[in-house]
Amino acid sequence: MDTLRLVRSTHPGVGDVDVRMMQRAIQLARSAAAAGEVPIAAVIYRGDEVIAEAANNRECEADPTGHAEIVAIRAAGRKLGEWRLEGCSMAVTLEPCPMCAGALVNARLSKLVYGATDPKAGACETLYSIPGDARLNHRCQMHGGVLAPQCIELLRAFFRERRAEQRRAKEATRAADAAKAATPARRSA
Ligand SMILES: [Zn+2]
């Protein structure tokens, strides 16, 4: 329970349920990595009830919008039979991008808890602040950096492994080309 105490002291407004849901999202992201997806996952919950959860499925579904948040929001709407997710919170391992942050506003989500910040696409606090923009018709409470070290490490490990795989594939191609060049071409009969 040390983790819970630590998060509570550094993130006022984040409760035990939020932290548990983030831990759940981290587990889910880990299994997505094993399936070849970038390890990002989201859990939508109300109180301590899980409404929907999803990991990125962009690769498996060949879907450019297959971000964990979008997949989870759609599933939550279907489950509740209601497009308004008022009273629902989301825990997601990476700061949502502009598309997902827009979807959170459209879904009227009450609270967003995210792990790692995203300097390349973060649209909640880093590059934009879409869910907190007073010009929009809905704002949601935001808490970033929750269990960030675990979320960052998941992504780092995934990309490290992917780079190593690409290196191995390139070396194998080079070795095959070298072998081909060394073999004298057979004369046709
Ligand atoms: Zn997104």
- What is the count of DSSP helices, taking H or I runs of 4+ residues? 6
Tell me which ligands are bound.
zinc ion
Instruction: Indicate the overall shape.
Output: elongated
| Low-pLDDT segments, ≥5 res | none
Taking all Cα atoms into account, the compactness measure Rg is 21 Å
Helix percent reads 40-55%
Average pLDDT over all residues: 93
Beta strand %: 5-15%
Structure characteristics:
189 residues, alpha/beta, 5-stranded mixed beta sheet, 6 helices, 5 strands, 15% strand, elongated, binds zinc ion
Q: What does this molecule look like?
A:
By secondary structure, this protein is of the alpha/beta class. It contains 6 helices and 5 strands. Strands 2-1-3-4-5 form a 5-stranded mixed beta sheet. Strand 3, helix 5 (98-106) and strand 4 form a beta-alpha-beta unit. Helix 2 (16-34) runs parallel beside helix 6. The structure holds zinc ion (ZN). Zinc ion binds at residues 67, 69, 96-97, 99-100.
Topology:
Layout: H1 2-10, H2 16-34, E1 41-46, E2 49-55, H3 58-61, H4 68-80, E3 89-94, H5 98-106, E4 111-116, E5 141-143, H6 148-182
Parallel strand pairs: 3-4, 4-5
Antiparallel strand pairs: 1-2, 1-3
Helix pairs in contact: 2-6
